[in-house]
Structures are given as structure tokens and as C-alpha cells.
Queue: 4 jobs
Job 1
Amino acid sequence: MSELHLPGEPSLWEAIGFSVVGGSFVLGQVTCNVGSAGPGWAFAGTDAVPNELCGVPTTVANLTPTSGSSLGHPNGALKVDHVVLVSQSPTKTAQELEAFGMVAKGARVLGSGGAQRAAVFFWSGELLIELVGPAAEGPDAKSLAQIWGVTFVVASFDRLAEIADGLLSPPRDAVQPGRQIVTIDRSAGLGVAVAFITPHVKVP
């Protein structure tokens, strides 16, 4: 994946510390175009891209940015960590992603009892797609999915906390050992769930 198309006006993304130029900002190899009608994505390196993939608006990316951004972000964001894709039938959606050429890199069941959710993980470029949905799928569940949220990597939450004061949740332990995560309150008006997570830690 080379581009994310995200709702929320550019000024709202600037309010949480992103440097938006011409309606977009770059993190690593991913360009985030903001102010879009709805969450979508774009892929580079192929012309065989459908108008939608699993129900998500899909286009051909204009270019693949070089790794790293020449423009720093006041919030300290370094890269896109993962995108959360929600589906009522993660099995069917995973099959569509695999048919498109993605390779599943792992799966697990989250939660317990009736609240269990299935999660399947796909690498797309340098970011992870986390596909989630009910562990027990109904027989008529559709493969249509939507981008529910996006998580960005920051070295620490210090700069982010200064900028997004009042919008930031308290830090909590992430699923991955050694990492912490914070979320942006929905009142920020970004149109998708937004979180920030600390980098991967090598665990002995």
C-alpha cells in the first residue's frame, strides 16, 4: 500500500501535529491524503487495481515515496504502523485480499466468550493491515469491509501530548510486549479512529 485516503479536513490533522502540505503528509513509504470523502487506499506498481477491494475504495497510487519524509511532524510521528480493517466475514475478506496478491502473516482470536474476535494480519509494503471481525461468522455475512482506524508510530508521547492536549487518552500497554498506545478522542473530528504507538521492542 502506497497511499491512504483519510477523511477529516487538513486543519484537523494539523491540530494533532501532522505537517500537511497540499492536502497530504508523508510517513515513510506511505502518503496520507486527507480530506477525502471516506477511508480508502491506493497501491503502486500495478495497473490491475479494482475500483474497490473488499468494499474499500481503491485506486492506483500516483507514485511510491522514498522511505522517510523530508518534512518532520511536530507530533513526532515516524511511520504508519497499521490499518484496522473491519469485516463481518473476516474469512471471506481475507480470501479477497489473498486473491489480490496479499499474503496472510498470522491470525489469532482476541477476547473471550461471546466477545471473541478473529484477527488476520497482512503486510502491505511497510505497514500492517489488521483485519478484524467476529470469530463466529453468520452464514450470510458479507466480505465487504471498511477502514476503521489507523495507528502511527512515535518514539514517545511527549510532543504529541503537548499538541493534542485534551484529546489524548492515557497511555496503556499495547498487545505487543514492550509497546504503549494512546488514542485520539473522536471529538477531534477525523472521521476514523486514530492511535499512536511506541516502536517495536526486542524482547529477550
Job 2
Amino acid sequence: MQKEQGFALKCKDGVVRIAFADLEYVEVMNKTVFFHLAGGAVYEATAALADFEEEILARPEFVKTHRSYLVNLSCVQAVSVHCAVTKDGHNVPVSRQRRGEVKDAYLQFLHQTEIAAVSSGAENRAFEEKTVRPDGPWQILLVDDDSADRAFWAKVLQSHGCITHLAQNGREAVQLAKKEYCDCVLLDVMIPGEDGFAICEKLRMLTGAPVIFLSCLTETDKQLEGFASGGIDYITKDTPAELFWMKVKTRIKLAASDCVQRKYGPLLLDLTGRKALIDGKELPLTTLEFDILWRISEHAGRIFTPEEIFGMVWGEPSPEGAQTAQMHMSRLRRKLDTAQEGHCFIETVWGQGYRFVPPDR
């Protein structure tokens, strides 16, 4: 058996040799193992997954997604909550227990792939030059398949002196991110091919620029998915042009700022890493919880209503958003109180809202 090339399989068609590079995914059903090859061919053998699992998983490009499935990451186009979508359009189930492991493995595989892509001398020099910010106006990568929307937002950006690089889909966005410097990426969710959430994860491997979602999808679950995939903000397309610009400008300035940490007694906010630490120990905050803490800590002592908090973090003030803000605030306060007994960083002002109360320094 030649581990570097593939393995021999005794199946109904006789003995066949399967190359690791050609194996898309493995599926087990009723004591039969199906070997799905890129291009559509399928071989089957009467066996258990355990008979092949150890050998296949010894390859760095393979990962177990489910007790009955293995997948080749080089054949994967995207990883969603419930499945890995292959380039041939197959959905390979991902069990709840393995979701984090599979997603981390996929991101690591993409990262290694991108490093390999720039390993040659000329490409590596171009990559290094791209990471050094050139003099001049801000450069923004705008990804949107709608030509009218793309033209409108590009005009807004250009009216404020920005240079825009335009892409219609994820593939074009990745190519531009490889060769052009960007101060910010504005990314639509519904684009051809891989959606914006999957492309966001790839762009984060290529550029340190903040990724902001710009979408007509206003649902809370979509915005949460945007933050979970690595976006630093989520702007809906019904946002007024000037508010849109203020949000983009703030995010770019924050990303470029030398003031990337704020300290309030034992509490340290790392704005670059988007982490909160108390006495050096990181708090297990969600993206939204960190955003709430960061925003209200900028105005210590000021009372914020739940509606205002919702507006700062989710986009615009909303009476309906008050309950959502209160729920996240309750969880945030509980985590802070658990980490630092004896001090309440966030104080409830009954009938009014919440305020950040830094400890005496």
C-alpha cells in the first residue's frame, strides 16, 4: 500500500486503486463504504469505516465530519452549520459535536493553501508589497453582484475621497485581495458562488483589513452569522449614506489606530484582537457582547437605554430591539460579575437603562 499516492480497494468491480487526491468524500451506510471521487465516480466495498479511517485521516487534507463521513478539504467549497459543501455540489453532513473542529480544520487548510500560493519569489514579493500601506487615500474593496448597488456605494465612497476596487463575486474578491492593498472590505452576503459569510473567512486569511457586511438582509440571525464569520460590522443597505460613511470611517480609523487597548482597572479591552481580559484572564464574550462592552465603555458614566444599545450594535434604534439588547446585556453582566467579584462594571439604572462604571484606578 503506497500511502503517499493512494490505496487499493477490493470492491464489486475488482481491485481498484484510489488516489488520495481524487477522493472527494467517504460515506458509510448499512455496513457498506462508498468512496466518492471528484468527477462523480463512486466505488463501494463491504466494510466498516474503521477499516479505512486511520489511513485516510493520516493525510492532512482529510477530516472526519460525522461518525459515518470523511471529507477531503481540498474538494470543499464552503462549510455551513450543518454540512460541508463540495465543489461538485455534494452536501457532506457535519455532526453538531464536530462543527467547531471541522470549521477550524477548513480555515487552517485555506490558510496553508494561500501561503503555498504565494510561496514563489515573484508572488511572495507582490504579497509583501500588498501588506505595506501605500501613501494616499483609503482603498476599499467593494464586493456586490448588483451593478446598481455597486455603483451607488462606490459613488458614496469616492465622494469622500476613497479609491474603490470592485468585485462581483467571491472569486474576484479573493483575487483582488491577493494583489491590492485594502483599508476595508465591504462585502455583500448574497453573491454568486460561495456566499459572503464563506468569503469573509477566506478574506481574513489574506488581509488584515476589517470586513464589513453590506447587505439587504436585515434579519438578526443573518447579522449574527456575519459577526460569527469574522465581520467586524454589519450595515444594512437601507442605512442612509452619511451614516454608512460614518460607520466605515470609524472602523477604518479604529483598525489603523495605535490606540488599540483600553484599560479600566483590572479590565483590559483589546480592540484589535476583540478580546476582553480581567487580570490577564480572557472573558468568554461573544462578538455582540464585546461590541456592547466596547461601545458603552467609551462613554463611562453615561446612561444608555436598551433601544440606544441596540442601535449602536445592531444598526439603528428600535423599540423592538430593546428586549434583544437586554438579553445580551444580562449575559454580559453575568460574565463580568463572575470574573470580578466585588465590582459591577455595568450598573443598571432602574427605569432608564445601563451605564459603564469603571473602577477606581
Job 3
Amino acid sequence: MKAFEDLKESTKKDIIIDGLMRSKGVYLLVSKPKVGKSLFALQLANSIANGIPFLGHEILKPSPVLYITTELSDSQLKDRCNLLGISFKKNSFFAIDRSDKQSIYFRDIEYEVKEFAEEYNGKVLILDMLKDISFDIGYDINSYQDIAQKLMPQIRSYADKYNLTILFVHHLNKLGKTLGSTGFDAVVDGIIRLSKNCYDDSTIKMEIINRDFPDDEEYLHKDKNQVFSIAQDTSLDYVNPNIIGFIKYAIREKDFDFNVSEIINKANLMCTPTQLGKLINSNLDLLEKEGLHITKYRTAEGRMYHIKYEEPSLENE
């Protein structure tokens, strides 16, 4: 038993990426197929191995990275790195691929994991994809008990045994939830969730849910080489995708009244009523420029908005 004044505070040396990952943590990177999880994971590996800030997050503890891929051959992995324009200095990035097998058995590669951790002082392990990596246990992916009491303790035991921070890549289901049991979300130390915008494939919503850092939300831009960067709200090309959806809906409806809850459902926007209210208020100049004339009024039920759309003038373009 320890008194409060005797409890230790965590230090920066325990953090791999500020706001994202601490040492010996277990993290989940998740999205639907074709959003770019593997490319995102490689970009993350590049930042950790080379000490380069990752999407605004400082790398406090650069480290060699071991990337275990079940979907790419070593030549495909090299091609992906070339596409992203990234390279690694000697002994800072290591890879294990499936080598034409159906899955990777962790027991078969554990010696290499041990070598990575002990000989190269590697601290970060990325498992891409989790579904094709077999551990020495049987489990039902839809069972909370199996995920929380069998699979995740097994993964965490490797993090503790080899002093590793582990990020595993997984899928979202059709409803936008982590595939399988909610046990995945409940027992990891942090989640990075990527969502493709339904109006613009190049805009990705990144949600960060974390036990050790404040939750965060950021919109990313993915360029033609699949490189992720923070979207800059300097033009309509990079503006929050919910605003783009809002504008498209307003153009279609022309002249109407609404409250924020109604329009989120009708326009299929990816935000909460509070978030949309803030977005509208902070983008009034942009909306006016795009031809959306907005007035506000109150009723007994709460705040309402009226929009009238007029084709914007192109004289000053």
C-alpha cells in the first residue's frame, strides 16, 4: 500500500509518441478496408524509426520498428515504402512477411522478435493484420471473454516479456465498429480509428481514444501517393468533410429550416450535434461565399436555422 504522496508520476521517457503511445502499451489501428491502414502504419513506423513528428505528434522515444505483415511480400513492402517516399537507416526497420503461408504463427517467429528486442534494442512491434496471426490459443473473435481473457492478455504478455509497444491492425465492421467483440476496444491502451469521408476519398477522419492522453480528433488529407498529412482548412478542398456534406445537402434542398440533429441524419454527416453547431458557426464566411445564406432563430424546441441557397458569384474568382 502506498500513500498518494508516494505514488510515482509517469515521465516523458515512458512515452513513445506524445499523445498517442507509451512504452509497453498495446494499441489498435482500425478502419474499414481500403482506407489505407497499412500505409498509415508504415508512415507511423517511419516517424518512430527516424524520429520524425507524426501528424503533429512528437516522437519522444525513437526506436527501431519490427513490422509483421500478413498481406504484403517483402518486395511489395519495399514498393509501398518507395511510394510513400520513406526510407530507413541501417538496423532501424525490420520486416517479417507471410512467405506464401496462410497465416503467421507467432511461436515460429518469436525468436526473431526476441532478437529484435534484445540485439537491436527495438521497442515497437506492428502486427498487420491481426486476423492472420495465430497465437497458441483458440478464441472466438466475437466472444468478449475470449478477447479480454485469452487473446489480449497473450498479446500483452509479449509486450511485457520483450519490453515492446505493440500496435495491431484490424478491421471495422459494416456498422463502423471494431470487428468482433467489444473486448478489443475495452482492453487496449489506445485506439486510432480511421474513417473515409463519403464525399471525398482523399479526406480521412482520425479519431484517437486513449487511456493515457486526451482523446483527439483530426482530419487528414491523403495525396496521390497515399501520404497522410493534416488537412489544412485553407480552401474547400481541405475543409472539414462534414461541412462539404452540409453544403451539398443545402444546394440540393435550396430553401429550408433545420436544427442540427435533423440535418446530421438527413445529410449523413459524421459528427455530433454539438460539433456541427460549432462547425457552422466557425465557417459562416465560407458558407456565405459558397452561396449559403444562414439565419438563426429560436423556438420553444430550441435553436433553429434557416438556409437559402443562391448560386455564388464567380466575378471575383
Job 4
Amino acid sequence: MSELATNNLGERPKALLLMGPTASGKTDLALALAERMPLEIISVDSALVYRGMDIGSAKPNAEELAAVPHHLIDIRDPAEPYSAADFVRDAEALAADIVSRGKLPLFAGGTMLYFKALLEGLADMPPADPQVRAQIEALATAEGWPEVHRQLALVDPESAQRIHPNHSQRLSRALEVYKVSGVTMSEWRHKQHEQGGGGFFDRYQLCQLAIGPRDRSLLHRRIEQRYNAMIEAGLLEEVRALHRRGDLHIDLPSIRAVGYRQLWQHLEGQLTLTDAIEKAIVATRQLAKRQLTWLRAWPELNWIYIDKDDGQLLTKAEIIQQAMGFISGMDI
């Protein structure tokens, strides 16, 4: 087995984590690291799992996918939800398999909930119940998601305070957990915490990297430029193909993805194309802000900044040098 996977018999295997806000350069850095180390990339992205959603998710192209083994990309139809629990199950199995072959797993992406679930473990909550979920969605259709939020607040005020009234997926799941089990999601999470989690922190030696700019305005410009480039590359046609299927709708996690939801609303006649593009860019910037909020509180994180104090951008070589310095310094 490679020394990258483990040093001495009995030591915990090693893994790399590369996270950061959207449009920060994670994919480019992951591919560059793969040129220098025997690793395989495990995607930590809730949109990349879906087939047919390539442009708007900034999915690696065919050449990039062929250059290094990638996992958890194109594994679901957009009609099939993919949860954090699904991710943890799949990621755990993949990491073990990669290590067994003497390679290093590199978890790369921007879905912070997936990272948190992987590292800290998930409470053993009840599985999804399609019938109960359908009842909740019917309530939302008839009276709106704020009413679902109100009902959640009556039984689980802690979760209701944590979840925005418009965040339909999380609201639905929290109320579903209570209706199925009679135990609130907050109680499940407290139980998990008392039991000590049981995630990757306990079983792997980790080098945690984050990439992003010091200047928030730089990230905003990159987001706008990238989304406009996606439109030019045919994102609207990609969304139109999904819309034509007839079995997809805006309440699915896939279609709610930032950048897709707004174009879907345009195709439904709710927004002009100009408004949809503007709202998508704003929503992507808001996503980046939430990602940065998560990352500021992340423990043991090594930051790789893509810009200097004077505003100058680092070269690709300088970014790679920073990353390799952190990795070497942690004996991985």
C-alpha cells in the first residue's frame, strides 16, 4: 500500500479535503494536485450527482474526467433526490476502496452540508417516507411553505429557528422526521452529539484545505463572469431539455439548484430571461456568502488565497505551491 494512504501499520489512513465557495477554483486545483499525487477525486457537490446537468453545475469536462478518476458524478437522474445521508454512505465506501488500492482520496466541492455530515457523522434519523413527504408538499402547495414553517415551529422550534421559511427541502425533511418518528430533528441531532459523532475525524488523518479570495468583490465578479459564460455555452438549452421531460418540477432538489431554478422559472413564464439571469447571479453570490460563513467557523482549515493583499491574483503555480506546502507540512 502507498505511504500516502498510511504510514505505519495501525495508523489511520489519510485523506485530503478541498473546499471553498463557488467559482473559487476548486476544480483546477484538484486536477493540479492529481498531477502530483496518486489520488482520486470524490465530488462533494449536490448538483454534480445529476445526469444532464452539466453546464450549470460547472461539471468537469470529458478531458478532465479522463485525466483522473472522479466519483459521485452523474450517479442520479434529476428526478431522484440525493441526500446528505446518501452522500456519507457512498463517500465512506469510496474512500475505503481508494485507500485499499494505495491511493489518496481527495474530497473536493462546495456543498458544506455534505462535508459536515461526512466529518461529524449523521444522526440515525428515520428514512424518508414518500407518503408523509407528499402530504407535506400538498400542504405547501395549498397554503405555502411559511405554513409548513409555522407547523414545524409548533413541534420543533429549534429547527424552525435554524431553517429559513423559504427553504422548502429542509423544512419538509424536518417536519417529516417528526411526523414519522415522533421525535424532533433537534432531538436526533442532540443525541448524535452526545454519542460523539463518529465521522471521518475519528478514522482518518485529514489535511483540510480551503481556496478562495480575500476580496469578496473578486468572487462576485468571477461568479457573474462564469454564469454569463454558462449562458453562452447553452445553459438555457440544457434547462429547456430538462423542462421538456415533463416529469421534473421545481420542488425537486435538482431543479432547485442555484442557476437552474431561475431559468426554470423563466421557462414557466414567471421571469424574463434577463431577470432570470440577474436573479441567478444574485442567488449564486448569496450561496457563496453562506459557504464562506460555514468556512469561517470550520476547525483546522488551511486557507489558500487566490489574491494578494494588494489585489493582485496569484499565478496557478503559486496556488499549487501553497497547497503542496500545507500537504507536505501535515506529512501527507
